[in-house]
Amino acid sequence: MILKILKRVNRYLPEDFRLRLLPYYRRILPGLNNVIFIPQLKCNYNCAYCIWNRFTPDGFKDSFHHFTDWVRIFQTFPPSAVIITGGEPLLYRDIVPLIENFPDKHVISCLVTNLSVNIDKLISLKKKEFRIMASFHPYTATKEAFMQGLISLKAAGFKNITVNFVAYPEYLKDIPVLKKFFEQEKGLYFRTDTFKDPDYKYSGQELELIREYKKKGFIAPDRTEGYSFEDFSAKACRAGKNLFIIIANGNVYSCMEGYYYSECKPYKDKYNKIDKFYLGNVFDGSFNASEKNRVCHSPCAELCDLELAGVRRISVSS
Ligand code: SF4
C-alpha cells in the first residue's frame, strides 16, 4: 500500500514540496527500505566536484552485470524505494530492460542522469512513473541545450523532473539566474545541493552567500549544515538496516558516506574505525543486512544519508 502511494508521490509531488518533507522522512516512513543502486560506475563526464568519479577505484568502474542478474537479486530484497544513479546510469547497457523488468514489489523512485547520452532510451520506456533528477553541469552544455532535453522528456510523459545542480564555488553566483531560467518551464524545479569534498571547505564569504540563497528560497534549507566532517559525535542511524548502497560489482554499503569511507582514498582516514560500512556482496552470498539500527561515530554530511537513514545525534547526558 505504502509503495503504491509512493509511486503516485514520485509521479506528481513537486520537488520543492518533497524537499520540505524530507527532514521528516523517517517519522513518516520509519520502516521503509531505501536502496541507492548504481548499476554502472563509469561516467562520460569528469566533473571536478564528483566524488564518485574522482575517487571510485578504477577496477570498480569496469564492473558489469546483466539486467537478469540484478532482477534476480532484487527479487530477494524486501519491498524498497530504489534510486538508480551512477556514474551515468544511461551508459548502463541494459538500462531499458532493467527498468522494464524491475520486480513489481519495489518502486523505482528516481533516476539521476546527466542527460547527455541515450535520452532516447529513457523516452522509449513504458514505465515512466519515477522522478527524473537531471544533473546540469554548466561546463558541458548550455542551459538552452539542456532545457531542450528536459522538454523532450516532458513531452514523452515524464511528469516529475528536477534539475539538479551542485553549488560548486565557481558556480555559486549563477544559481539565481539558472533557477529563474529552468523554472520558467512549467513543472520544472531547480534544486541545488551543496558541494562536498574531503579537502575543501567553503570560505566564510561563500557560506554567507549560501545562507542568503537559502533565505531567499534559491536553495532549499536542509540539515547538512549541522553535520560536518569534523563531527564524530554518536548518531543513531538506520543505514544498513533500512538504507543500502548497491554498486555495479554487487558490493553493498550501509550509506553513501560509508562507501566513500570504505573505498575512496581521501576518505579512508577520515572516519572512526569502530564503524563498519561494508555489508558484503550480493553475488558471492556474503551480503548481510544489519538487524538493528546502529550507532555511528563517524562524520555524516550527505543529505541522502541524513534523511534516508534518519540520522539523529544521540544526546549525551552529563
Ligand atoms: S551516521 Fe551517516 S555515515 Fe554513519 S552509518 Fe549513518 S548514514 Fe552512514
Explain the overall architecture.
The structure is a single chain. With 318 residues, the chain is α/β, with parallel strands linked by helices. It has one domain (2-313): TIM Barrel, CATH 3.20.20. The protein is built from 13 helices and twelve strands. The strands form two sheets. Strands 6-5-4-3-2-1-8-9-10 form a nine-stranded mixed β-sheet, sandwiched between helices. The site of iron/sulfur cluster has 13 residues, from strand 7 and helix 12.
Brief description of this entry?
This protein has 318 residues and is of the alpha/beta class. It has 13 helices and twelve strands.
Topology readout:
Blueprint: H1 2-12, H2 15-21, H3 25-28, E1 33-38, H4 51-55, H5 58-61, H6 67-75, E2 80-84, H7 95-100, E3 107-113, H8 119-124, E4 131-135, H9 143-156, E5 161-167, H10 175-183, E6 188-194, H11 204-216, E7 235-237, E8 243-247, E9 251-253, H12 256-263, E10 278-281, E11 294-296, H13 303-308, E12 312-313
Parallel strand pairs: 1-2, 1-8, 2-3, 3-4, 4-5, 5-6
Antiparallel strand pairs: 7-11, 7-12, 8-9, 9-10
The low-confidence parts are: none
Under the CATH scheme, which class? Alpha Beta
CATH fold naming:
TIM Barrel
The assigned CATH architecture is Alpha-Beta Barrel
Count of DSSP H/I helices: 13
Distance between the amino and carboxyl termini = 44 Å
